[in-house]
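#struct-help
A.M.: can someone run this one for me? Single chain, 289 residues.
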Amino acid sequence: MTTLAFTKGHGTKNDFVLLFDERGEIDLTPDLVRFLCDRRGGIGGDGIIRAVRAGAVADARGFDASTWFMDYWNSDGSTSEMCGNGARVFAALLERDAGVDLRGGLTFGTRGGARTATALGGGRYSVSMGEFRLGDAPDGFDSEVAARGLDPVRPALSVNLGNPHNVVALAHVGELDSVDLSVAPVVHPVPPNGTNVEFVVTLGGEVLEGVERGRIRMRVHERGSGETMSCGTGACAAALAVRFWAGSDAPDVWDVEVPGGLVTVRVVGTRVILEGPAELVADGTVTLP
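D.P.: on it. Structure tokens below:
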């Protein structure tokens, strides 16, 4: 194979190179992922999303062979369990290229388990992100994070959404702006499989159409990709952590501002739903090295 057809898409500017590969004919390797994600020598993206049937992916154990599978790779060539923004873009690709009707929802596979995407209209999608788990932290924190530009070391809460997160609360927007995420934050205890780190500031809340909503602002350093303009699972983790810290009267709906836009997180019992836009912005063919 000397050329490869691709689509470029993003969810709140968390951008991806998408490969529609129903039968699993593309030999997707770490070297190929790094080339495609290279913003100067390749196409450029925070990660690769391959739309493929589960039967063609060795990692897709536990799914029926005919199930659609979101094969997600970080820009450094490593695989990841799940990507919330990517799941919406994946859904948009399936709508367009596979003719899938998502108005009633579609359950698909990821390395983090089954997820369900639903088209909301107007280029917006919701993704049922499954069950979440908060760290065992009776005092609100179970870890510490050191980051350049932020002194001293700050307490954090671990949140698992099929992939790992550590969330740090900051006092004000100035602190959030001062964090230098060109260097990976250091987390202690060291997560065995790495982690995504979210820095968050609470902005207050409002009541809209009778529903109380919280509002937060977030930046994120993603495992395997560095700082990104948005992280869907990270937005969920940040909202869940702030909700936990706020106590039993906290809202179940949170609007999360990220550098790339706005997403909404809804907590339903032990599960969480992510809502936001997805855009497919370009199609092309790339010559492989």
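A.M.: thanks! The two ends are 10 Å apart (CA to CA).
D.P.: also worth noting: The helical segments are 30-37, 84-97, 173-178, 232-246.
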